[in-house]
Amino acid sequence: MKSRLFSVALVAALTGCASHSDLAPITRPTDGSTLAAGQSLAGSPITAAPVTDWWREFGDPQLDALIEDALKSSPSLQLAEARLRLAMAQAGVADSTTLPRVSGNYQGNRERMSEHFLYPPPFGGSTITTNRLALDFSYELDFWGRHRETLRGAQSEARAAELERQSARLMLATGIARSYVELDRLLGQQELSAQLLKAGREATSLVDQRVAAGIDNEPARNRAHSQSAALESELAAIGEQVLRVRHQLAALLGAGPDRGLSIARPRLTQAGALALPSVLPAELMGRRPDVVAQRLRVQAAEHYAEATKADFYPNVNLSAFLGFQAIGADALLKSGSRIAGLGPAVSLPIYAGGNTRARVAGRYAEYDAAAAQYNATLSTALREIADAVGAWRTVEEREKAQGIAATETGKAFEASRRRHTAGIDSRLTVITSQADAIAEQRRAADLRAQRFAAAIELARALGGGYAPSAVTAQH
Q: Where in the cell is it found (predicted)?
């Protein structure tokens, strides 16, 4: 009994030689409720909650099909899914360390015995065959939580990888939706620019006639030809932009550039509003997969730090074996050849040149980095929501003003046509009014695209309808 007490006291004393009490993380995760966002988000006109397939609200079956195809075969999603499988495999490896290990082993040795060692003749100097067939057991008693904390860290990383896959899905869907809206805008601009160019060419022809008749001067002709050439250049530039967006969509789909050429003219019908979470920013942490994933990375770093701290304490392994051992093969499986054993093995860290302290300090540095990244992610998420809400409000206000401008230019164009029919206005005046009306239509088309873009940004900023599972929500 005295020897056992002495051993326990010795272990405790020697363990105290290595301490980690002065090691701790420096950075802490920000409490989301402390980030003021109420004023920026107050009075939002947003009315309907985002759903997982939020892009269907735009009412374009072709867009639905493109995003569904991309979610099946995009390289970016395949990469995220591979990372998820890797994280799950690592969690499985960590889980295996918490369980006993059992192995079946056979060992056979042919050896000559020394005449001058443990065994005298006739064994000494003879050649024998030894055989061992046994089940060997080993189990590390996880008193200090090394394996338990490692497993928890790996599980947190696996959940984070799943959320990052969700985030990759969201980024892919928003990328396709953005490009699709841009394609719609450019094709509309291309059509209106063609109308504007047609009107410009007619105006140029009329100016040429007026100069020939001595009504206008040469500078007027130069201005008309310059404007017409500028419209031709602009139309060509729009055509190039259309090709670029088509190629971009093809790349997002994981296909060759020809895939983008087959995309028909978009038929977007509406850009519905979305709802903000009822409590911000606290609820944001459960709606944004990237925010939740980064929070899980912080938790994983904390678990790994705790696991590394266990290296300051004794490592206790329990081993056992059960089987047969004999000289020669004939008697190997006889009852008299049975062997069995059980015993602990204790490894005590006494001096490692500061290795363990350095590794714990490194783990805390990893925690600090993860916490800082989480804080940055949370702050960025709130900024993106505020920006998206602001963009939506601005587009609504601009559309109201643009609607008035478009109405007035349309009225002016119709009035000019009537005056031309009555012989009051010239054809050139009518063309000028038409050009003004087309220019307002172009601005209206741009604002329509901006409204769709704002809806897309709101969907992305709010997590794209992501809803955390009960397990994830607890973390």
A: Cell membrane; Membrane
